[in-house]
Structures are given as C-alpha cells and as structure tokens.
Specification:
The protein is an alpha+beta fold. It is 57% helix and 11% strand. The protein is elongated and about 135 Å long.
Amino acid sequence: MTFTGCKTNEPITHGGTFDLPETWQVNVKDGETSPKQDTFRFPISDFKSTVIPELVEEAIENSPFLQSTEALTEVASAQLYSAKSLRRPRLNGRFQNNRQKYNLGTNPAFSRFSSGGTFISNHFTADIIMDWEIDLWGRLDDLQKASGADYEAAVNDLESAKLSIAAQTARAWCALTTASLKIRLATQTVESYEANLKIIKDRYQQGLATALDLRLTQASLTSAQAALENESRLEANGRRALEVLLARYPEGKAEPGKKLPKLESSIPEGIPLQILGQRPDIRASLQRMKAAGFREKEAGKGFLPKIGLTGITGTASQNLRELTEASFSSWNLLSNLAQPIMNQGKIRSHMRVTKAMRTKAVADYKSSVLNALREVEEALDAESSLAREEIALSKSVMEFAEAETLAWGRYRQGLVDIITALEAQRRANEAKSRKLNIEARRIYNRIQLHLALGTPISTSRN
C-alpha cells in the first residue's frame, strides 16, 4: 500500500485545448491614419506630448490599490519561505526541570526499611533538539512548488494591477480633457445662440421676425445653457476621478489638456496569438493552476507514512549547577515512522477539496484566456471601425457647418423659416460633439487594446 500510493498524477499545468486560428480574425488596416511601427507599444508613446507619463508614474507610486496588492505579494513571499523551511531541519533550545514526589511507604521495595515518608527529586536538562521530516515521497516539495506558483501568481497580479492603473489614469485624463473640450464647444454654442437671439430681437422689433422666431431662439439658448451646466458638472466629476486615481484629495483641481492627443503609433499587421502570453493576468491564472495541481498531488500522498529524525544533545543532572559540566552530557537519537490508520476520512476529504480546486483553477484559466481573446478581437474590430467613423464624422462636421451658414443666410433673406435655421445650427453643434466623442473613443479603444494584449508599461517620453 505504501509504494502503490506513490503513483500520483503529475500536476496539470495546461488549460485544455483551444481551437485557435493562426492569426486574429480581425485584420487591421490603418495605414492611412498613421505610419506603421515595428513594435506594439503601450499608448504612453502616443501621449508623449501630454502630462500622462508623469501622471502614470504618480498613480503607480501612490495608488492605495497597488499598495494593497503589494502587501498580498509580501504575504505570498512569506508563505513561500515558510514552505521552504518545512524541508529543513528545525533546531530548538530547551531547558526543563522535572520535580517529582515519591511516597516511599507504598513502595514494596522500601517498605521493609522505612515505615513511611516521602522522597522528592529534581531533574534538570539543558539541550538542543533537532527535528527533521525526511521528504522521501516529495510531499513537502509539492507544497513548496505550490507556494512558489502562488508567489509567481501574486507577482503577476501586481504587474496586472500596475497596467490597469496606468490605463485607468490615461483614460481618466483623456476623459477630463474631453469634458473640458465639450465645455468649450458648449460655450461656443451658447455664444452663438446669444448672437442669433440678438439678431432675432432686432428683426422682431423691426417687424421682420415673428414671436415664434423669438421664442424658438430663446428656447434654443436656454437649452444650450442647460447643456453647458451639465458639461461643467461632468468635468468637475472627471477632475475628482483623476485625483482619486492619483491618491490626491478630490478637490476638483486636476488640470485637463488643451486638446486630445493624436494616435501616432499604428497597429502592426500579423500580431501573433502568442502575444497573449505576456498578459500578467493570464500568467497569474496559469500559476494558480500549477499551484492547484501541486496541492492535489500533495494531498494524494496523505496515506503515505511520514518519516522523521529527532536528535537531542545537552546535559542532564539532578543539580542545577552541574548542567554546565561536560561529565553530565547526554544525547539521544530517535527515528520515527507515522502511518495514518484511522484518519482516512479526513485525508480523502482533503483530496476531494484539492481536486475540486484544481478543476476550478483549470476552468478559471480557460475563462481568462477566452476573455482575453474576446477583448483583443473586439478592440481590433473597433480600431478600424472607429477610424472610418471618425473620417465620416469629420466630413459631416464640414457639411453641417456649411449648411448652418447657408440656413442663417437664407433666413435673413426671408427664404427659409427660423426652424430650418435653428435645426441646421443644432445639427452642426451635434456633429461637432459626436466628432469629439469619436476621437475620445478611439483613444479609449487604443488603451483597451494595449491592456488586452498586456503590452508592458513605459512612462518614458523618448
């Protein structure tokens, strides 16, 4: 039974089989928007003209979330050290005093010579104890490997958290800048409606405009003013959101950029699927799967005997003062073998738990890989779609601007009514806002793509 129990399965270190294509299903062709690059970089390279590199460094240095994740890494490191120590001999110093009382009257050997009485003895020992479990079956080695895999998973969790914080910071700054630009656009819209309202009032006083024209223009102005207040509130929230990421007090004083950054790098063609192997969260999931496999393997050795050695050396005497004398030295060497007999229920339950945890770890790994594949495919698909949408919206902004100018010119000539002019102006403003939104979405998507691919962080301006 002892040696057949040694035939345990090797820990599972793979996540099953995936039917994967050789390349991504979405083929990105964005050569018209930016030059090709030889390497695929984190979008900090696209933000070199902004303050984002400094903000990312500040966020990584001060983020409470990262500090919490670093603490978990320290816990995993300590647990790995503890697992390693189980395989080494343990030394302990010991001082012991054994004081006993004997009743001589009840001892047949002394009853003939003593009518009763007591005898008290002292026994002092001072020694060093060495205790060592011999890892003949590799059980402790499995625990050490499991702890090592847990530590590697924690390290990758920290890298994943840093990448996430960097992406959130870049996105928060871009969102704040977008909100600031929308305020500028809303302010221009209000000023435009105010100018038009002044013209309509003059025409109304001259009898050239109706009360309906005046009311519609006034309503458009108040609606634009309400939109401006909404954008101002969103900008204030964006300032505080960025400040929280930077671990600052959310007082709403973070500064936005003057304009959104331009995407200077492009998506190279033929990105291999293997690039997902650099994603820290996938590497962490893989390590957890390995750890679960080693723990299942260790649990399977629960029925095997444990072999240990215990060595004791020191001095022993009935007098405390004699403990320092070499003539009272003593030593003892023990070997032991412990075989579980009536503990099979607990061992089998532990085996079931570790097997279930290994199954869960494999499923989690598969889920993380599939989710990563989905994120990359969606981001690649959106990269081309958003680029085409931005080109179309740029043309629409120009067309609506021309239509607005023509509509107001014809209104002044009495060729169209006020509704046509106001509708042309509303659509022109809406086109500008949509164009701004699509520029921001392209940046957000590029950040998401680099996050999905696990591209290493770089805060260098070079």
